[in-house]
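anyone seen this seq b4? input:
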Amino acid sequence: MNNRLVSRHRIGGGSTSQSASRLLLIMDVLGTPTDGGGAVPGAVKVVRSLTRMVKIDFWLRNPDYLAHELLTELEQGRQPPKDTLQLVASMIGGSAPTLHRYPMAKYLYGAYERPDNALALLASRKHIKLLRVNEHSANARKDYYLLPKGQAAATTLRDEVPPMQWYVRQAEAVGLIPEAVSGGPMRQRQYEHPGYEAAMNGGLIPEITEEVILRAKSIAAQHSSSWPPGSPTNVADGVRRND
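predicted toks r here
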């Protein structure tokens, strides 16, 4: 998908409700469990910092970049070849890149977009609660707590809205990348791709699907595997988690 042909709707991550659903699933799949009695009583999970939320969302919205990182995990011996290649094929094969790519612009130090409307919608429905931490220090940040009502809504999305399963699988795949536990390391890792780094400030980060396909073919040949392989039914089958 040429960046010049991308609609304004896609550049913004879709509608507010689409973005809210995606962020809710991010919190449900990748949020850190809480004991329910901490800073936000009753909360079930937390994503610490907007940076982490946005960097995860970048990988969900750009399956080519997530596939690129999974291939790196394979090459470095942290993930098994067969299952990782199957997972990558599901992200960059067929119509997946066209259907699921929602580009993000680069600002200063990487992909960035303030999902204020989506987060406000979730907060208004009492699905999440925002908490400001160290507000008057150099380490100020916002933490996002998933509330029981939000977790129930995420479960409904998983069970009753089939297209949302794509984002569940993408979020599970993000969890295979060691740097995904924190916003800073994620930002640094994403910046290591030359195309990402070279994107102009304020411009869209370019698509790399064809590059990733060529890389996947080369890696598959090194492991005497065919390309494309069959698609997996569950991201958790055969891959190692970074718990």
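Strands lie at 32-33, 45-48, 128-133, 141-146. Confidence is low (pLDDT under 50) at residues 231-238. kinda curious what u guys think
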